[in-house]
Amino acid sequence: MSDLAWVPQSCTLPTEERPLRVAEWDALFAKWLTGVARPQSLTLRLELEDGPGVTDQVRDLAEREGGCCSFFTFAVAPGESGIRLDISVDHVHEPVLDALAVWAGTQVPR
Questions:
Q1: Distance from C-alpha of 78 to C-alpha of 67, rounded to nearest angstrom
Q2: pTM passes above 0.90
Q3: Which of 42, 28, 36, 48 is nearest to 71 (CA)?
Q4: Are 86 and 43 in contact (CB under 8 A)?
Q5: Helices 18-32 and 54-68 meet at what angle, rounded to 10?
Q6: What is the pLDDT of residues 75-91, one digit of tens each?
Q7: pLDDT value at 3 more than 80
Q8: How far is Cα 84 from Cα 106, in angstroms, rounded to an integer?
Q9: Comparing C-alpha atoms, which of 100, 52, 53, 103 is closest to residue 74?
């Protein structure tokens, strides 16, 4: 996602590092993402295929993302056929979650 206008001002990741972080998410999505769901308005669920080191990669990326964007809450757990990553926000940051859902949705293989 090249247009990062949706990134809120509360994100503390330096601006020049944001494209690199997006590239990390893109790479994760491209290789492992199998599904996107919205079980609640403030929660986005990503289903990822499991593989060697994938859970650790997801946990690491989620931890680093939570470090700069404290409005996100991440939960990594076994999913139906792999790994489930739930991403939650408060009402103020729902538009950020909406943008993330659209972005992730474009990465799911059809």
A1: 23
A2: no
A3: 42
A4: yes
A5: 150
A6: 999 977 899 999 999 99
A7: no
A8: 18
A9: 100
